[in-house]
Amino acid sequence: MGRRTSWNGYINSIYYPENTSADAPEKIIYYFLRDTLCSNETKGNAKFHAVNNKEWEPIFDCVDFKSSNELKKNFMYYYITELEGKKKSEASKVPVPFHTLIPCTFQLYTSNLKEDGEYSKLDNKGFREEFLLAFFLKEDGSLNYELIKKFWDQFCDENDLNYYEKFIIDQVRKNQAFTNFPELRSQDELEKKVDKYFICKKQPKQFQKELDFILKLEIPRVEKINWIQNLLYFHFSSYMLRIYTVIEQEERYFNSTDSDICIKCNGLKSCPLYSKILVKSSHTGYNSKEAREISEQFNYIRGNIFFNGYSRFIAFSVLCEIYEDLNGKTEPNNLTEIKKLIKNRNDDFIKKFKEKLKLIYEEINRVFPNTKDYTEIDQKNWNNENVFTFLYTVFKEYYEKVESNKKSSSRENATNGVFIKLAGNKMGCGYLNIVSSGNSHKFEFSSKFLTFITNIIIGREQSNKILLEDFWEFIKQNGFIYASEREKLNIEQQLVHLGMLEKKSDAGESIYIRKTIGI
Fold first, then answer.
1. Is residue 428's pLDDT more than 60?
2. Which of 15, 52, 90, 316 could form a disulfide with 85 if both were Cys (CB 3.0 to 4.6 A apart)?
3. What is the mean predicted confidence (pLDDT) over 432-443?
4. What is the pLDDT of residue 124?
5. How many domains is the chain built from?
6. Over 80: is that where the pLDDT of 132 sits?
7. How many CB atoms lie within 10 A of CB 11?
8. What torsion do the CA atoms of 459, 465, 470, 474 make, to the nearest 10 degrees?
9. 231 vs 427: CA distance, rounded Å
10. Is residue 243 in a domain?
11. pLDDT more than 70, % of the chain
12. Would you tell me how many other CB atoms lie within 10 Å of the CB of residue 393?
């Protein structure tokens, strides 16, 4: 389930929301190759940071830049991405992971000096490796190691590298300080890392089909890696939409069902995210009826699903801790086991729940004195309460108070800035909330995103075309639904302009959508 070292421990075992920069696609792949897939024995620790890259710069010493020092600087940093650091005035320079040798050789360091005078390592505080590996899980719970190897081999392949990339790799190999040759971890090692709790079985299956399709494409390397980045970020962000939607349903109906949503899953059609998100075409104006409805929905999702979802996951984590305390530190496999515990060992659960709640109240009163009344803990009839909702409300009120007392609170940073971005705003082919020319495009199918999602949907079906009605069904399974019949027609017209859909004159003839990549 991942480590829970604080109230927000469970959700942080998936993603560290306090960090606003480590979720960029380049960093996701960098850390996934280095920290998760590369074996410790073959991993290098050459230092790389924004302040003084003494171990990176010697790679370029053999090049004589007589004409211009500026040319040398540009060449050296050609494959370094400038990403925003923890402070606005600080930048972290990260080598682009065009080949496994780069992330597996260079350990990233921050520009922050420790007390001993050394710089601190830049840890992965974006998506956690347990979460990333879950997307490679088969429905039987085992890892799709064959696909992981294909992913790894894509970044080990030296074909189609350009001159600069080949030069950097050759210089890394020639440098005496870099003696590592990256190797993929064994399946057994990776099996121990994966977190199998609260993981959808159906979306990873989709992801694996789509990744396999992209890896087989005969397209330029740079273009293929861009497709991989977009696919990773799309699935990570849409998965966050999925689990936040699920946890909202679980909290609301906690007392009225005996089993949780995911344990009785009948496919993505039965998921609470199915057809949940209203979308519009980029051809639709900002002042249309659909745009206003989507804007209202966006505010609801931002508030109730994401903001409050953070508190729901913390409440969920407390329920897990109570289960562990009563079961010899054994973690629950699912929410259903927690419900069974409450039913079968009710007295034990209530006793432990009161103890835990008292500790929570003590923490809150330490921050905001006299906020919580301890007497209500013993006065309430907990058998008539939805304990999940009660805990969620406690944390929700606490974080609202934190936010109102401090403008740049950790909660505001963790939910408003990051989770909204996480749900699509910063994705390479963003679809959630992109602001340009003073206009806000919320839940909009831009041509770029439509090209992306249509190609991967058709590609995973191992076909060059699918029926139009099947396309809309797959869109719904990803959580989206057109805001109106007019929006449906507008999106279909976009597909016509993109060369993916050909309208037929005969109304009885089937209409197909065709992919435009890998043909």
1. no
2. 90
3. 59
4. 62
5. 1
6. yes
7. 27
8. 20
9. 9
10. no
11. 78
12. 16
The token pair at 85 is 């650091």
CB 466 within 8 A of CB 457: yes
- Of 91, 87, 103, 104, the C-alpha closest to 26 is 103
Q: Phi-psi region for residue 361, left (φ > 0), alpha (ψ -120 to 50) or beta? A: alpha
Residue 131 inside a domain? The answer is yes
pLDDT tens-digit series, residues 369-416: 999 999 999 999 999 999 999 999 999 998 788 777 755 444 445 445
Token duo for residue 449: 């995103």
Q: Does residue 34 sit within a domain?
A: yes
In 3-state terms, what secondary structure has residue 201? Answer: coil
Q: Cβ distance 283 to 343 under 8 Å?
A: no
**504 domain residue, yes or no:** no
How high is the mean pLDDT of the chain?
81
Per-residue DSSP letter, 57: G
Which residues are within 8 A (CB) of 69 and not within 5 positions of it... i.e. 6 or more apart? Answer: none
- The two structure tokens encoding residue 517: 């990549």
Task: Find the domain containing 156 and state its range.
Answer: 9-196
Alpha helical stretches, state H, 217-307 = 221-252, 289-300
For residue 404 the two structure tokens come to: 């109102």
Over range 280-286, report the average pLDDT.
85
Q: Which pLDDT tens digit goes with each residue over 441-481?
A: 678 888 888 999 999 999 999 999 999 999 999 999 999 99
